[in-house]
Structures are given as structure tokens and as C-alpha cells.
Specification:
- The structure is a single chain.
- By secondary structure, the protein is of the alpha/beta class.
- The protein contains 13 helices and twelve strands.
- The chain has a five-stranded parallel sheet with strand order 4-3-5-6-7, sandwiched between helices. Strands 9-8-10-11-12 form a five-stranded parallel sheet, sandwiched between helices.
- Helix 11 packs parallel to helix 13.
- Bound molecules: fructose -6-phosphate (F6R).
- Fructose -6-phosphate binds next to helix 4.
Length: 368
């Protein structure tokens, strides 16, 4: 059943190339995006003036990636909110708000309550879900399915990648419908997105380095994760994975926030993962993150750096460099998280923990 892996989580991590390919499959026709399930009238999609993404946990981290993509491509103000906070805060939602509910299970009660609240205010709701026939897509105006297959391990991995890929599809679809991007721009973006499954496989094929690192770090008591832009939600997700399955204190930060407080945590030997954006994207973004690596290293941190192939600027300040293939800054979110998933899974396995059924957690949280 586990296909030769120690856990369902390990198996699901290694299924991610196929999972993302399955999310993308059949959605591009003659260079244009087709989302057949999207039965919300295009005129409604053209009239929306705000998007609110509601989700919990890992799905909320996927939503945080979506914000960068949707605002960049569609120029629609996009907020990402934990569903339980949204619901109890009297949020401003109108008929011109598009609410995007992300949920692997489609049964998370907090997210469902947020969907109901949004619809009562007249908002249109699109659900991004993995489980057909589940409650959230049934109650939404439209549903986009991830098609990543059943996820058994409590800690979400392949559904996270499917959620991000589905968010990209939604963002590009909105840009197409609203005319924010030219058809050739959308085709070029989709062509790069379709390379991602092969690139995921490359990251998985080189997992031995991270697995060794995880076994060596079994006794760690605190690990920090830093990133900017989509590296920020990646840092949050890396920290969440380590907390939930390895029971290690972990925190994800926006790297720019360091000097506003968290850098005080750094002392000799503190492990810090840093997610570095592509040096071929915005230069200032890349150089800021390289400076952040330098800053924590100068205070004694052990720097574990996830960087694109050929990015040599990180070498002087990295204790360990984990390589990922080159892609667009936005799409890197589908690659850079994988070493972090493998790290947590391998570390928890080495500690002898129940990786698939971590203590105190349930796969689907159907109570508020
Ligand atoms: C973490 C994890 C949880 C879920 C969250 C939402 O690995 O699995 O944080 O992401 O409970 O679940 P869904 O996506 O089913 O709504």
C-alpha cells in the first residue's frame, strides 16, 4: 500500500510530479485556458473588485502563494484569511467579492462556515478542492478540483502542490477572462508551468542530500525558516510540516521581518532554512535574501539554503546548499517546498515517530 515507502507521507511526497501534472491536465486548449467546471458567468468574473481567499493550515499557505500570482497577473486586490478569523470578524464582502475557498478535504468546518457567511453576503464562491462530492464544493458556486488523488497522511503534501497549481490556473483564467494578459503571455506562462512536473521529479530524484541532513539533525530543538515573496509562504509551510510531524519548535518568517524582532532568536548553531528566489527574477529581491543569509550567518546561524541551480551568490554564506531547477519566481513555490517536506518526513521517521498519524491531529477537522 505504501509502495515501498516508510510512510504514506513519503509516498505522497514522491507522487507530486504526477499530482501536479494531473492538476494541469486537459486545462489548456489551443493556447487558451479552459476551466469547464467554472460555471460562473464571465461577466460576473469581470465585475469583481476584490478576492478573498479563505482556508486553514496548509491550504492557507497555498492561498498565500495565490495572492502573489493573482495580484501580479490580474491586478485584483487579493486578501488571504484564515477561515476561522474571517468568519468572526464581520468582514467586508459584497456581490463584487470573489471568495476562493481552498480545502483538500472539502469538509473543514471553519472553511465551510466562511463559505456560508460569504454567500449570505452575496459573494460568489469558488472552491478549490480535492475530494469530489464533499460539502464545500457542493455549497460553492463553482468548484475546481485538484485531481491529485486521495491523500492519506495527515500532513498535507501533494494536495498543497495541487492547491498552488490550481490557484495558478485560476489566476491565469481570470487574467484571460478579464483581458489582463495577452493570449501569448498566458501561453508562455502555461508552457513554463507545464515544465514543472519534470522539475519536481528532478528535486525528488536528488532527495538523498536532504534525507541525510534530516537524519543528522534529529536532535534539533528549534528550526527557523525564512523567505520573501512566495518564499515567505514556503517558509511558513516548511515550519508547519516540522511542527506537526516532528514535534520540533519551528517558525517561518518573512525574511524582511528579521531585523524587526526574530533575529534576536539567532544564536550559535541555530539552524535556519532560507528560501532564495531566482537570481533571474527581480534582482533586488534575490540580493535582499542573500543579505539576509549573511545577516543570520554573522550571528552564528547554520544556514541551510534552498537556491536555484547555478546561483553562486549564495555560496559564501551557506553551510548547506540544496538545489532546485530554474523557473519563474512565482512558480518556484512548487519546487522549493519539496526539500522542506522531505526534511520533516525523514526527520520524523528517523525519530521513530508516527509520521502519518501525528499526535493530536486529524486529517479533516470537521468541528469548529
Ligand atoms: C497540514 C494540514 C492541515 C490542513 C488544514 C485544512 O499538513 O494538513 O493544516 O491543511 O486542516 O484542511 P483542508 O485542506 O482539508 O481544508
Amino acid at each position: 500500500q505504501k509502495g515501498g515507502f516508510d510512510s504514506f507521507m513519503a509516498k505522497e511526497i514522491h507522487e507530486q510530479a504526477r499530482a501536479v501534472a494531473d492538476t494541469l491536465r486537459g486545462r489548456l486548449e489551443d493556447g487558451a485556458l479552459r476551466l469547464d467546471e467554472m460555471d460562473i458567468d464571465p461577466s460576473v468574473l469581470r465585475s469583481i473588485d476584490k478576492i478573498v481567499v479563505v482556508a486553514c493550515g496548509t491550504a492557507a499557505n497555498a492561498g498565500a502563494v495565490a495572492k502573489y500570482a493573482i495580484e501580479h497577473w490580474c491586478r485584483i486586490p487579493t486578501e488571504v484569511e484564515l477561515a476561522h478569523e474571517f468568519r468572526y470578524r464581520d468582514p467586508v464582502v459584497t456581490e463584487k467579492t470573489l471568495v476562493v475557498a481552498i480545502s483538500q478535504s472539502g469538509e473543514t468546518m471553519d472553511t465551510l462556515m466562511a463559505v456560508r457567511h460569504a454567500r449570505e453576503q452575496g459573494a460568489k464562491v469558488i472552491a478549490l478542492c480535492n475530494t469530489r462530492g464533499s460539502t464545500i464544493p457542493r455549497e460553492a458556486d463553482a468548484a475546481l478540483y485538484l485531481h491529485v488523488g486521495p491523500e492519506i497522511a495527515v500532513a498535507s503534501t501533494k494536495a498543497y502542490l495541487g492547491q498552488i497549481a490550481a490557484c495558478y490556473l485560476l489566476g491565469l483564467f481570470l487574467a484571460q477572462v478579464r483581458g489582463n494578459l495577452y493570449p501569448d503571455e498566458i501561453a508562455a506562462l502555461m508552457a513554463d508551468l507545464e515544465q514543472i512536473p519534470d522539475q519536481i521529479q528532478q528535486v525528488l530524484d536528488s532527495s538523498a542530500q536532504v534525507e541525510q541532513l534530516a537524519r543528522d539533525m534529529q536532535d534539533a530543538t528549534s528550526v527557523l525558516f525564512l523567505g520573501r515573496h512566495v518564499g515567505y509562504p514556503t517558509a511558513m509551510e516548511g515550519a508547519l510540516k516540522l511542527k506537526e510531524i516532528a514535534y520540533i519548535h519551528a517558525e517561518g518568517f518573512a525574511a524582511g521581518e528579521l531585523k524587526h524582532g526574530p533575529i534576536a532568536l539567532v544564536e550559535e548553531g541555530q539552524p535556519v532554512f532560507v528560501i532564495v528566489p531566482s537570481p533571474n527574477g527581480r534582482h533586488s529581491l534575490h540580493s535582499k535574501v542573500v543579505s539576509n543569509i549573511q545577516e543570520v550567518r554573522a550571528r552564528g546561524a547554520r544556514t541551510l539554503v534552498i537556491a536555484e541551480e547555478g546561483d553562486d551568490a549564495v555560496l559564501p554564506f551557506a553551510d548547506e546548499v540544496i538545489r532546485v531547477p530554474a523557473t519563474r519566481t512565482l512558480f518556484a513555490a512548487l519546487l522549493t517546498v519539496i526539500p522542506l517536506q522531505i526534511f520533516s518526513c525523514e526527520l520524523a521517521t528517523a525519530k521513530g515517530l508516527d509520521v502519518d498519524q501525528p499526535r493530536n491531529l486529524a486529517k479533516s477537522v470537521t468541528v469548529e
